Hints:
The protein is α/β, with parallel strands linked by helices. The protein has helices at residues 8-16, 20-34, 42-50, 55-65, 75-90, 97-109, 118-123; strands spanning 4-6, 38-39, 112-114, 130-131.
Amino acid sequence: MKAVLVDTCIWSLALRGKSPRNASIAKELTALIHAEKATIIGPIRQELLSGYSDFEQFNKLKNKLIYFPNEPIIDEDYETAAEFSNRCRNKGIQGSHIDFLICAVAHRLKLSIYTRDKDCSFYSRIIPVLLYSES
């Protein structure tokens, strides 16, 4: 199995881990981590850390995320993200700049995206991105 780009929503749900749904996501993410397949990019790291205004919790999460180096983002990724955004918008599908950047990086690195964001299923009908299927 190739590496998997783990979206913000998966990290967030796994970190909450209380409900059965979140527990299953946490279990899947843990398996990816143990297999050294979980990857992250800077904007996802930023989104995650921005959700913790408590300084102690922020530092705790920051220290955990250190074990996951950022996949590099290159100029081509920004151009591809803009192209993906335009292609989707032309088909009536809106998305965030970050979503399309995630898609662009995953596309370039040939990674699947582990997400529960419903928008990504719409994107995948128009742009060449692979969504990770839980085992």
